[in-house]
Amino acid sequence: MENIIEVKQLMKSFGSKTALKHIEFNVRKGEIFGFLGPSGSGKTTTIKILTSQLTLSAGEVHVFGKDITRTKDFSHLNRIGILTDNSGLYERLSVYDNLELFCKLYDVPLKRIDEVLGEVNLLQDKKALVKQLSKGMRQRVTLARALLHKPDLLFLDEPTSALDPKNTLHIHDSLRKLNAAGTTIFLTTHDMSEAEQLCDRIAFIHEGEISALDTPQNLRLMYSDHSITVVTEHNGKEIIVQDAAGIEKINEYMVNGQLQSIHSNEPTLGDIFVKLTGGNLQ
Amino acid sequence: MTFSMRRFQAIVQKEWKDAIKNPQVLLMAAMPIMFTLLFQRMGMEAGILLSMPILFVLSMTAAFVQASMVSEEKEKHTLRVLMLSPASAIEILFGKSFITMLISIVVVAISVVVVGPTLTMDYLWLVLMFLLALIMFIAIGTIIGLISRTVQETSISGLPVLLIFMVGPMFAPMLKNEFLETIVSYLPTDHLIHALTEITKGNGFSAIQGDFLNILIWTALSIPACLIIYRKRRFD
Ligand SMILES: Nc1ncnc2c1ncn2[C@@H]1O[C@H](COP(=O)(O)OP(=O)(O)OP(=O)(O)O)[C@@H](O)[C@H]1O
Ligand SMILES: [Mg+2]
Q1: B138 near B101, Cβ under 8 Å?
Q2: Model confidence over A207-263: pLDDT tens digits?
Q3: Burial zone of B103 (CB within 10 Å; 0-12 exposed, 13-18 middle, 19+ buried)
Q4: How far off is chain B from A101, nearest CA to CA, in Å?
Q5: Cα separations (Å) of A252 from A233, A259, A261, B65?
Q6: Phi/psi zone of residue B2: left (φ > 0), alpha (ψ -120 to 50 degrees), beta?
Q7: Is the pLDDT of residue B226 over 50?
Q8: Which stretches within B62-187 are classed as H helix?
Q9: Whose CA is closest to B161, among B176, B147, B182?
Q10: Burial degree of A259 (CB within 10 A; 0-12, 13-18, 19+)
């Protein structure tokens, strides 16, 4: 499978502080790659390096097969869409005017503006001045702008952090559609259910190191204690370990027709997150 | 180095929509004209009457406004987005400068129309000197804007720089410090003030040769300086 991003031994330090400690990962073509970690773990720093907004201290980074540490040609950025907390908007201009500028810079037909505004559920606010918009609306305008030129690779740094549940769902739908149409997505988030719902693979980053990387399904299995929860008429809810005694017990419940509910206990991504980072969400 | 007219125009168009809604720009454009009209009523000498709006326009309407607009793009993180788009350094910087330049030219033209008829002088040299100085001041404004992180920083650090440029030549002789006077004698504003005095007196190119050369060198140096600093700011 083709890799869109290849990161080897990436290290970044700010003065004496090391933000990224020789991390390694690949992002495959067509996947939604989740980058999860607590605040200050190095998510934004990684995105900035991958999008040539920040130079790295050591290591190797290839994007679209191009060694971005050794090039002065940034033309590959034209195939990339970026949403970070430092993607600004022109406050005195309308939503439309903001998008019009970038349509022209990317040589995209102006009719695309309505399409992307639809994707982020902002068609009604096209004429509104940006300075009159709420935080969540701005975030959606920024996302719309990142989608204008139909990028092959999309970097989203906490794209739904300021959104209400309804708009979050709307954006998730749009991202899935976009991904189905071929856009590879690199997503950071604090929202575990967002990661679970959207991501094909997830990397957990903690204090500048990647502590786990796999599909959500495999991660859950890997960190599972393989116990089983059963609910019976007599004993109510019970957690049973998978050993000879456990099998015996379940067998007995089944033979006697007492079993009301049974399921394996896989940890949620949130549980794994807490386990790996020793911290809370946020 | 690429230059696309389409992208340049797109940036100019954005800049225009933004400028006409920016009270600071409008104020800085209106002030020199108001002062000229006011001083004219007070019966000020025509030569000074013309130099005054020109110097004001160069330092405030051109350099200071440019610095504020560039630092606003930094503060609001819109410059970052432009840098990540296909727009090149030249397209972005020229596009940003175009409207500032246009407004400055219009304001000075109005001042000349107000004052000019009372003067007999060589307009060609006035126009040339002004345009050259204008390019330089916009480049200096851009540099100040690129160096500061916020609009407020521009006011705090940029304004004093511009003031030294403008009032240095007027006050340095009074301080009777040789070192200071030598420094000031290299300032383009010192030469500009001298040249404007000569031109409005009706003197020709021979009287302003040295001044012309000085400003030409400053202009020629400020543009690459501007591009180099811009490229440095590419990375956080
Ligand atoms: N320009 C900088 N100068 C110095 N230190 C920095 C700089 N940028 C980031 N850091 C440090 O690098 C570490 C990683 O920061 P980063 O912004 O990548 O975290 P993050 O994972 O995006 O956090 P959050 O979830 O809060 O956005 C932090 O400890 C931060 O203090
Ligand atoms: Mg971050």
Answers
A1: yes
A2: 999 999 999 989 888 888 888 888 888 888 888 888 888 888 888 888 888 888 888
A3: buried
A4: 6
A5: 13, 9, 14, 83
A6: beta
A7: yes
A8: 65-75, 78-84, 89-115, 123-147, 151-153, 159-175, 178-186
A9: B147
A10: middle
Amino acid at A188: T
Distance A128 CA to ligand 2 centre (A): 28
Query: Token pair for residue B108?
Result: 């000075």
CA nearest to A153, candidates A54, A45, A7, A29: A29
> What is the rounded CA–CA span in Å between residue A57 and residue A10?
8
Q: Tens digits of per-residue pLDDT, A105-139?
A: 999 999 999 999 999 999 999 999 999 999 999 99
- Contact predicate B63/B141, CB 8 Å: yes
Query: Which two three-digit tokens encode residue A241?
Result: 């370990």
- The pair phi, psi for residue A100, each rounded to 5°, is -60, -45
- Reduced to 3 states (helix: H, G, I; strand: E, B; else coil), residue A76 is helix
CB pairs A-B closer than 8 Å: 73
For A68, half-sphere exposure in the C-beta direction (CA atoms, 13 angstrom radius) is: 25
**Whole-number Å distance between alpha carbons of B138 and B96:** 10
Residue A9 has pLDDT above 90, yes or no: yes
Task: Report the alpha-carbon distance of residue B180 to residue A40 in Å, rounded.
Answer: 49
> What whole-number distance in Å separates Cα of residue A68 and Cα of residue A12?
15
Annotated domain spans of chain B: 5-233
Q: Are A54 and A12 in contact (CB under 8 A)?
A: yes
Q: Which of A213, A204, A215 is nearest to A275 (CA)?
A: A204
Name the pLDDT band for A279 (thresholds 50, 70, 90): low
| Alpha carbon of A119: minimum distance to chain B alpha carbons (Å) | 20
Residue A282 has pLDDT above 60, yes or no: no
Ligand nearest to the Cα of A157, by number: 2
Q: Which domains does chain A have, with CATH numbers?
A: 3-220 (3.40.50.300), 225-265 (no CATH)
Q: Is B176 on the interface with A (CB under 8 A)?
A: no
Tell whether B21 lies on the interface with A, counting CB pairs under 8 A.
Answer: yes
Share of chain B above pLDDT 90, in %: 50
Which of A157, A54, A89, A91 has the alpha carbon at shortest distance from B77?
A89
Spatial distance between the Cα atoms of B234 and A132, rounded to a whole number of angstroms: 30
CA distance linking residue A144 with residue A114, whole number of Å: 10
Tokens of A90: 């022109």
Neighbours of B235 (CB within 10 A): 12
List the beta bridge partners of residue A232. A236, A259
